[in-house]
Structures are given as structure tokens and as C-alpha cells.
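Researcher: I'm preparing a figure for a lab meeting and need a structural model of a single chain. I don't have an experimental structure, so a prediction will have to do for now. The sequence is pasted below. Please return the structure as C-alpha cells so I can convert it later.
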Amino acid sequence: MLQVLNHYEICLSPWLYGIADERAMENQFRDLVDERDGQHKLEKVRSIIGKDKFPATEAFKAKLFPATPPEKKGRVI
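Model: Understood. Here is the structure written out cell by cell.
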């Protein structure tokens, strides 16, 4: 699981530092959020390991999905 998290972090780092095509990256990685219930995939694992270890992933999530409405909150995937 850590390898998957690290993979996403490495892929999103150029986006974070503004050296990647922002729109393309956002379209490619938007699927990290389950459209059915608005839950952020891998959130529980990032919380256990420490969200501070994944700054690009957290910044990406915050930009694309600044706040999840209370009615969409549910079980973390």
C-alpha cells in the first residue's frame, strides 16, 4: 500500500511545483475520489501513516475538492 501512495505522491509532485500541465494532471488523477460517495481513496491509509508525508497528494485533494459537503460524507475508502 505504501508503494501505491508513494507512486501517487511522485506523480503529483510536478503538479504541486507547477512544472506539469495542471489541467491534464487534474483530469488524470481526479479518479482518486469516488464519485459515488465523495470519499477520497486511500485517505485512511494516509491518515495512519501521516498526511504530512504526502504533501503533493494533500494539496491536490485540497485544490480539487476543497470541502466535502456533510451529506456526502460516509465510510472512508
